[in-house]
């Protein structure tokens, strides 16, 4: 039987985390393990996590989402590692759909999906999805030659993390962690995008122009920080060669 771990990085997010863990507690397919990475929180984040029976990984050094997420993936013991954020609210069948999708596609290393902004008005939610999420998926795919994972809503096989863990920049807090993981996965690895796997997330970054600017600078830093082997044209070339070999046009 497949075991699923859910990793939730959190910092000073006790209120949001309570709603997130409550949605995980209501899953039609329960998580086998929930790992909350308490990233040097000064509030009750750790207490909330423990109240829901989560494994708490407390980090005092090297704070930042990349280090926290990587620590969570390292600590997870499941065959599949699902990831959401502390402000994510997951639909009741989130884990069930993840399990069924990966079981139906054994060659896939990960599955990801979009999000809706539950605390924005309908027009704001639409604008945020069109103006922020869509460019993320389109532009990151152009750079990685693969479907990118979205940190608020994805799951990967343990084997995928074990192959990628040495290629992520976990000690740089200004790296865009899910984009960095997308680069760490091979261009030839199959990442599924399930439009029906929708997570609810907070629109709070849109209320803070500085936070939005930091997200953009982190994306640029992530792309520029990759090595020569991750230049977009090289990744697209490797993907093209792999596909030609699969159809027998190359030996």
Q: Could you please say which CATH topology applies here?
A: Spore Coat Polysaccharide Biosynthesis Protein SpsA, Chain A
- CATH architecture verdict: Alpha-Beta Complex
Largest sheet: 7 strands, mixed
**Spatial order of the strands forming the largest sheet:** 3-2-1-4-7-5-8
Classification by helices and strands? alpha/beta
**C-alpha Rg, in Å?**
18 Å
User: Percent range for helical residues?
Assistant: 40-55%
Mean pLDDT: 93
> Can you write the helix and strand succession as a string?
EHEHEHEHEEHEHHEEHH
Which segments are poorly predicted (pLDDT under 50) over 5 or more consecutive residues?
A: none
Number of strands: 9
How many structural domains?
1
Distance between the termini: 37 Å
Strand residue content: 15-25%
User: How would the global form be characterised?
Assistant: globular
CATH class: Alpha Beta
Q: How many helical stretches?
A: 9
The CATH homologous superfamily name equals: Spore Coat Polysaccharide Biosynthesis Protein SpsA, Chain A
């Amino acid at each position: 039987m497949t075991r699923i771990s859910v990793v939730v990085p959190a910092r000073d997010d006790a209120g949001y985390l309570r709603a997130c863990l409550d949605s995980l507690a209501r899953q039609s397919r329960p998580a086998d393990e929930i790992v909350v990475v308490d990233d040097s929180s000064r509030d009750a984040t750790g207490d909330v996590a423990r109240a829901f029976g989560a494994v708490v990984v407390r980090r005092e050094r090297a704070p930042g989402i990349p280090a926290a997420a990587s620590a969570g993936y390292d600590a997870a013991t499941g065959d599949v590692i699902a990831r959401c954020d502390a402000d994510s609210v997951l639909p009741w069948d989130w884990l069930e759909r993840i399990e069924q999708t990966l079981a139906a596609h054994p060659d896939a290393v990960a599955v990801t999906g979009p999000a809706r902004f539950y605390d924005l008005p309908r027009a704001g939610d639409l604008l945020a999805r069109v103006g922020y999420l869509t460019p993320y998926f389109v532009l990151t795919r152009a750079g990685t030659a693969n479907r990118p994972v979205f940190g608020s809503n994805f799951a990967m096989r343990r084997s995928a993390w074990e192959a990628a863990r040495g290629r992520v920049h976990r000690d740089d807090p200004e790296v865009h962690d899910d984009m960095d993981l997308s680069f760490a996965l091979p261009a030839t690895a199959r990442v599924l995008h399930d439009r029906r796997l929708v997570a609810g997330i907070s629109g709070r970054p849109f209320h803070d122009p500085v936070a939005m600017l930091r997200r953009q600078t982190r994306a640029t830093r992530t792309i520029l920080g990759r090595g020569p082997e991750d230049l977009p044209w090289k990744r697209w070339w490797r993907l093209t060669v792999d596909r030609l070999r699969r159809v027998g046009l190359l030996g």
